[in-house]
C-alpha cells in the first residue's frame, strides 16, 4: 500500500509538468525590499538562496510552487510598462510560496533593479502591483553540479534531512531515493517541505542517491553514484557529481513561447 501511495503521488506530481510552463503568461507582481522575506520561506533554502541566481529571487503562487516541486525553478519576468521597464526583464529563481493570489509573483528588490530602466526601480516599487508577463526558462549553473546540503537536524545514523541546491535545466525533482554505495536496496525519501527531503531509514556507510525528474512526457531517473561519505556531517554541502540539464516536454500546443 505504501508503494502504491508513493506511485500515485508521483504521477500527480508528474502531471503538474504539463502546465505549459514554457508559454508566456500574463499576470501581476508585487515587490519586497528585504531579501530575508524570500530566503527564509517555504522552499527552505535559507541563506543558500542568495547563491542560486545572484539574489534575483521570487515567491510564486501555488500553481508555480507545486507543493515544493517548483522550488528552484527559473523564470524570465518583465513588467509591461515600457516607460519604466526594459524589454529583457529579470531572470528570477523561485524560493518561496506566494499565498496572495492577487499576483503570481512577489519579487525581491534585486529582480526589480534588473527589470527597471536606470533610476526607475523606486517608481515601480511605489506602484505596489504592476502588470507583468513571464515564462519559465532553464536554470543554468555553469561549472556547478547539483548539490546535496545535509541539514543541521540530521543525526547520523538515525535521521537524514537534505536540501537540494543548483538544479539546472527545466524540470522538477519529484522523487528521491537513497542507498549505501554499491547496494541496490533503495529507500525512498519524503519531501519534508520545499526543496527539503528526509528519511529515518538511513543506510550505513557512504550514500548514493537517485532522483526522479520530470523529463520528456514521463519521469526519468538521475543516478548520483557517490555523494555522501560514510562520515557525513550535518551542515555540510556535498557535490552530487551530476547536473540535471533536461527540459521537460509539455503536452500543450500551441502557445506563445517566442524569444523575447
UniProtKB/TrEMBL annotation:
The reply to whether Secreted figures as a keyword in the UniProt entry is yes
Which InterPro entries does the record cross-reference, listed alphabetically? Expan_Lol_pI, Expansin/allergen_DPBB_dom, Expansin_CBD, Expansin_CBD_sf, LolPI, RlpA-like_DPBB, RlpA-like_sf
* Residue ranges occupied by any Expansin-like CBD domain in the UniProt entry: 158-240
- Which stretches make up the Expansin-like EG45 domain? 40-144
Q: Residues of the signal sequence?
A: 1-19
Known CDD domains for this protein? Answer: DPBB_EXLA_N
**Keywords for this protein:** Secreted, Signal
Compartments, record wording = Secreted
Q: What is its main location?
A: secreted
- Transmembrane annotation, as ranges: none
Q: Which domain of life is it from?
A: Eukaryota
Assigned protein family:
Belongs to the expansin family.
Tell me what this protein is called.
Expansin-like A2
Amino acid at each position: 500500500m505504501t508503494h502504491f501511495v508513493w506511485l500515485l503521488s508521483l504521477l500527480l506530481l508528474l502531471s503538474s509538468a504539463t502546465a505549459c510552463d514554457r508559454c508566456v503568461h500574463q499576470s501581476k507582481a508585487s515587490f519586497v525590499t528585504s531579501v530575508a522575506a524570500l530566503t527564509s520561506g517555504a522552499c527552505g533554502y535559507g541563506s543558500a538562496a542568495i547563491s542560486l541566481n545572484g539574489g534575483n529571487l521570487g515567491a510564486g503562487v501555488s500553481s508555480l510552487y507545486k507543493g515544493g516541486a517548483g522550488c528552484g525553478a527559473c523564470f524570465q519576468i518583465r513588467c509591461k510598462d515600457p516607460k519604466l521597464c526594459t524589454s529583457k526583464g529579470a531572470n528570477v529563481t523561485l524560493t518561496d510560496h506566494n499565498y496572495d493570489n492577487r499576483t503570481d509573483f512577489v519579487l525581491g528588490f534585486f529582480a526589480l533593479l534588473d527589470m527597471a530602466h536606470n533610476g526607475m526601480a523606486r517608481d515601480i516599487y511605489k506602484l505596489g502591483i504592476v502588470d507583468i508577463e513571464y515564462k519559465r526558462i532553464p536554470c543554468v549553473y555553469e561549472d556547478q553540479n547539483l548539490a546535496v546540503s545535509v541539514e543541521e537536524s540530521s543525526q547520523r545514523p538515525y535521521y537524514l534531512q537534505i536540501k537540494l541546491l543548483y538544479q539546472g535545466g527545466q524540470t522538477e525533482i519529484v522523487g528521491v531515493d537513497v542507498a549505501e554505495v554499491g547496494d541496490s536496496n533503495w529507500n525512498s525519501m519524503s519531501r519534508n517541505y520545499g526543496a527539503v527531503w528526509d528519511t529515518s531509514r538511513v543506510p550505513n556507510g557512504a550514500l548514493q542517491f537517485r532522483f526522479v525528474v520530470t523529463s520528456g512526457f514521463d519521469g526519468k531517473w538521475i543516478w548520483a553514484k557517490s555523494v555522501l561519505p560514510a562520515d557525513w556531517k550535518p551542515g555540510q554541502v556535498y557535490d552530487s557529481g551530476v547536473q540535471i540539464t533536461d527540459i521537460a516536454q509539455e503536452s500543450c500546443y500551441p502557445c506563445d513561447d517566442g524569444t523575447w
